[in-house]
Amino acid sequence: FMLTSAGQPPLDRRGESEESGDDETRRKSINGDVDPNQPTASNCVASSMFHVVFQDVDLVHCRIGKIEGLEVLQKAKTLSLRQNLIKKIENLDSLSSLRELDLYDNQIRRLENLHNLTELEQLDVSFNILRKVEGLEQLTQLKKLFLLHNKISNICNLDHLSILEMLELGSNRIRVIENLDSLTSLQSLFLGTNKITKLQNLDGLHNLTVLSIQSNRITKIDGLQNLVNLRELYLSHNGIEVIEGLENNKKLTTLDIAANRIKKIENISHLTDLEEFWMNDNQIENWSDLDELKNAKSLETVYLERNPLQKDPQYRRKIMLALPSVRQIDATFIRF
Ligand SMILES: *[C@@H]1O[C@H](CO)[C@@H](O)[C@H](O)[C@H]1NC(C)=O
Ligand SMILES: *[C@@H]1O[C@H](CO)[C@@H](O)[C@H](O)[C@H]1NC(C)=O
Ligand SMILES: *[C@@H]1O[C@H](CO)[C@@H](O)[C@H](O)[C@H]1NC(C)=O
Ligand SMILES: *[C@@H]1O[C@H](CO)[C@@H](O)[C@H](O)[C@H]1NC(C)=O
């Protein structure tokens, strides 16, 4: 997996692993950088005409201000209007074959006029200025919904998306986890960088394998009892003091509880499938705590930097001796 330059585990791994071809654009727009390879208008037209043949239309970064004149694309399966200046979703009614619609990084205020896109399986309206989740009632084929970095304050109006597999709501203004009960097919839920104070209302999500709630205001690990299929749990940058409440999450392979207020590694000796344990920036001071990880025979990576343990001059050596399967300590691979 990837490391950021600060040697920290990535803040939200979805951006790193999923949709890898998009990483560059995502990072650029997050950093506010200007793309030096910005296409001219003629490039945009040329590439779109080329792609029509393959039912795959790409109008990225073309300074488009209004969606219009796309009626000819009735057969298009994917349409990307990434990084333009679009303010309103409109004039898409005839594109009823569309499977993927990408409106990432525009200036859209409302989810509207999507009712005819009943075949849509993937919708990305990240990096816009949406305040509400709405207007998705007809999109019952939707499998992936990306609404990262908007101004959304409530999780609602998702009930009919019963085959939704991925929901990205990171970097919004959400305070409460709610109204997810009918999303029984959901596999990945991303709620990082919001204002959530409690892990709750997750009981219906039996198929959830990835849960990310980094950079919120969680103080206690609970409400995860029903998530027996969970494999990756990201809880870094919260206010958690005790590791607990993971009794039923026996399939966890990644546990990220970095940057919390934890003094002791405890209650995880049953997590025998653990491969990644990210525990940096806490208050761990007792070397015997590593015994909790002894049963995790496939453990590959541990992050423990910036705990009191790191003051020990034998820091790396002691971790290697305690956890012989580990191949990476903090950002550095073990050299033999
Ligand atoms: C919207 O979809 C309906 C039903 O598929 C279709 O009859 C109608 O023509 C579509 N609207 C437009 C503007 O194409
Ligand atoms: C949950 O996952 C299992 C195994 O992948 C699958 O068979 C089942 O249909 C899923 N349940 C729902 C409600 O999607
Ligand atoms: C967690 O571990 C501590 C010992 O470190 C133990 O006292 C406590 O009962 C454990 N909690 C649970 C829920 O197992
Ligand atoms: C470290 O933890 C072990 C086992 O929990 C305990 O017996 C020991 O007293 C602790 N050492 C310190 C210095 O707290």
Distance between the termini: 20 Å
What percent of residues adopt helix (DSSP H or I)?
Answer: under 10%
DSSP summary, beta strand count: 14
What is the count of structural domains? Answer: 2
The fold-level CATH name of the largest domain is: Leucine-rich repeat, LRR (right-handed beta-alpha superhelix)
Report the structural category: little secondary structure
Radius of gyration: 22 Å
Distinctive features:
336 residues; little secondary structure; Leucine-rich repeat, LRR (right-handed beta-alpha superhelix); 14-stranded mixed beta sheet; 4 helices; 14 strands; disordered N terminus; binds 2-acetamido-2-deoxy-beta-D-glucopyranose
Structure description:
This protein is low in regular secondary structure and 336 residues long. It is 10% helix and 12% strand. The model is unreliable at 1-43 (pLDDT under 50). It contains four helices and 14 strands. Strand 12, helix 4 and strand 13 (328-329) form a beta-alpha-beta unit. The chain starts with 13 loop residues before the first helix and ends with a strand. A 14-stranded mixed beta sheet has the order 1-2-3-4-5-6-7-8-9-10-11-12-13-14. Bound molecules: 2-acetamido-2-deoxy-beta-D-glucopyranose (4 copies). The site of one 2-acetamido-2-deoxy-beta-D-glucopyranose has 3 residues, from loops.
